[in-house]
Amino acid sequence: MINSDKDAGKEDRLNRQRYQPPGALRVLDRLATWFVDSRTYPDPDDRLRAKVFVIAHFLSPNIALLIAALLFFVADVATSPLYLLVLGFVLFFTYPFLVKWGIPYRRASVVSIVQFSLLVYSALYYFNGFTSFVIPWIAVIPVVGMLFLGLRGALLTSVLAAFGILTMLLLHFGGHAFPQTITAEWQPLAFIISATLSVIFVSGIVLCHLSLYWLAQRRLQSELVRHRQTAARFRAARDAANEANLAKSRFLATASHEFRTPLTTIQAGVDLLQRYRDKLDAQQSAEYLQDVMRQVKLLTQLLDNLLLVGEEDATDIQFRPETIKLADVCQDMVRQMRLGAESSQRLDIHFQGECKTAYLDEAIVRRILSNLLSNAIKYSPPDGAVSLSVKREDDAILFEVADNGEGIAESELARIFERYYRVSETARVGGTGLGLSIVKAAVDAHHGAIRVESSVGVGSRFIVSLPAPLTAA
Ligand code: ADP
Q1: pTM > 0.70
Q2: Among 242, 290, 240, 234, which Cα is nearest to 266's?
Q3: Helix (H, G, I), strand (E, B), or coil: what is residue 441?
Q4: What whole-number percentage of the chain has pLDDT above 90?
Q5: Mean per-residue pLDDT for 123-145?
Q6: How far is the CA of 449 from the centre of ligand 1 (A)?
Q7: What domains lie within the chain, and their CATH numbers?
Q8: Does the beta carbon of 376 lie inside 6 Å of ligand 1?
Q9: Nearest to 463 by CA among 394, 381, 418, 396
Q10: Which mutation among 367, 412, 422, 461 tests ligand 1's pocket best, with the greatest number of atoms within 8 A of CB?
Q11: Closest C-alpha among 146, 169, 170 to residue 157
């Protein structure tokens, strides 16, 4: 889980790097973001237009001031309308701040476009009327309208531009004389410069609009990727939780069943002994008693395992080695196991080498042997033979539990140590799928190793090696 969180963080960082906009656009975007509050404009399209509005209002006065400077210094025009124009264009700088202070950009756009149109009309009027060099700027009005207000804005502002041109035409054909402020020799150059600037202005805004749009798309894409990754992680976690839940439910069902079977046998045995006490001979009574004892043993083992699973969930298995009487411990285990075996089953024990005592954790050894031996008994036929061999090999003790039972298929060997896992072929024999997972955890806690050799129909052999130095450290 921790690892996958780290991976997710790395992916996020990579995505962010991949979607970084180029430097200039980043600066423009940051500037516009400062003016446009995303809470006021939650809709991404709307926010984009508001940003373009802000950027355009930083650009337009600069370009218009360039024309004013040209007129003033090159064409030598120093009339009062020129100052008026300069003032009008400087006013555009205030619009981004109006947006920042919470005035909706659409409302500000309408005022701004009207102001812009009036400036274009008065420039047309004062600089040679219908033959003015400002004519290209009339075409800018609908473009600006479209970029700030959308298609409807473009239609309305087209009407506005047409209205301006119409007024000039009416005045012109009505015989009105316009002030002649630009001399004939300057008129072509002024037109070229003005047209170029209007094209630059419009391309600037369009470019900025497209770039911001591209940027928004990239961000959206990166969000989408992130969202997909989160969803995938969530699905994986949910599936794992479902799987765990399923395993737990299955386990609970099995465990209750496991308790019920021996309890029924115990009840029946005790019932028989009580009812027919006088009619049963000594051997029959001993057999019934043995049945009861076997089931009690089974229940005890089941309970032990259940308790261990609970403990393991909370803490690790404690490892406390000491010098123990190994041969006695093993003999005691086999004696106990005999109580749970069929009377016709054989249960042998062999010692090899020096293993009377050993430096081992007794609780862990008992846990391993009780589970391996009870499995060997459980999965062997009633006349089967189970053996436990104990031998020393250098600094380790080797335990070998062998049976001539039904064996385990090769394909199942990798999974039998998983918690709750049971081989389906053995489902008819009772079990919870806990035993071998407990054995594995115990062997690991003792820094040992376990392996299994098995063939179906022949039998199984579990070999456990536990480090046990000859002299205690
Ligand atoms: P349980 O015995 O409760 O099912 P275990 O974890 O002890 O659970 O064993 C897992 C599976 O391994 C068993 O379901 C069984 O199929 C298989 N198994 C374990 N020991 C033996 C054995 N000695 N002989 C045959 N199969 C075995």
Answers
A1: no
A2: 290
A3: helix
A4: 35
A5: 88
A6: 18
A7: 2-233 (no CATH), 249-313 (1.10.287.130), 317-467 (3.30.565.10)
A8: yes
A9: 396
A10: 422
A11: 146
